Amino acid sequence: MQNALDRLTHLLGKLPGLGPRSARRVVLHLLKKKESLFLPLIEAMHDTAAMVKTCSHCGNLSVMDPCEICTDARRDGAVLCVVEDVADLWALERSHVFRGRYHVLGGTLSALDGIRPEDLRLASLLQRVACENVQEVILALGATLEGQTTAHYIAEKLQAEGIAITRLAHGLPVGGELDYMDDGTLKAAFQARK
Amino acid sequence: MQNALDRLTHLLGKLPGLGPRSARRVVLHLLKKKESLFLPLIEAMHDTAAMVKTCSHCGNLSVMDPCEICTDARRDGAVLCVVEDVADLWALERSHVFRGRYHVLGGTLSALDGIRPEDLRLASLLQRVACENVQEVILALGATLEGQTTAHYIAEKLQAEGIAITRLAHGLPVGGELDYMDDGTLKAAFQARK
User: Fold this and answer.
1) How far apart are CA B49 and CA A39, in angstroms?
2) How far apart (Å, rounded) are the C-alpha atoms in residues B145 and A99?
3) Are B3 and A63 inside 8 Å of each other by CB?
4) Which end of chain B is more exposed for a tag (fewer CB within 10 A), N or C?
5) Contact call for A31 and B8, based on CB within 8 A
6) pTM of the prediction?
């Protein structure tokens, strides 16, 4: 192997889900499909690196700033969905369940990793709630210790605003089997039964 | 999601080992590590696409043609190792077991997939054996039906040359446990016991 190939294999091996072995497979696959895959992929990467930026308003990734969700007049500005990460925003968008606006925190509070309130997009969240006539804030954070701590922190900060603060329901995932669920999920699903 | 992001996610999802979900994770990871990973990766891909070509002599992938193995005077030109694919050549190089030269077929004969002798780098193999004073040809092809058919075909073609034709030994992989082995492997290992 040569320098260019070595370097490419090394960098591909750093991507999530790929290791040294699969990185080599990817390199060979790319070289085999140079016209149909390799060159278009380079172009798409180039475009993405050059054009995609973080929306200064909500924290989404987009070629526009503010992003197309923030500028879409058909979306309901009265409901603000707070998510941890852009991946969560994309997941909610794919589910077509929500037609309001988003606010991406960029992480969760974590004493262990030293992530404090000022490291997250929290000040701009409070400002948006104060200025944008928001009536409901949905705290769509993960059901982890950090996610719930962060949700609690935000709920406290927003208490004085007199708006509805909601969280996603806990329970069995749709299609989930009982005997694969952990105790916490079973307990939450039982307590929230209706 | 936008066009540039959509296109990149779509193309990444076509890579071996990645699907739509992991492609999205890769895109977000790249955008988070723009300076340290995304931009160097684009550069390495660009370099690879521009510089790496197939060695016209042996079929290896390299920035040089003929490649560094073909031009390395310290390697033994009397032993030629025939492999199916560049991945196999790389695997043998990593094991440091072989110091001769290679010939990459670019596939195996397959009636099912319609791969005939003229679709492989076979004519140049016969020519190399005839012209390069080769004394041994190692048929390092996979222990599959296609690999063994191809090895048999090549061995027949080379019979008249009066050179040694060898194949890799079959048996238990080092570290392999008996009860995980298929019948064919166990049989081969038994018959080749020493």
Assistant:
1) 7
2) 56
3) yes
4) C
5) no
6) 0.81
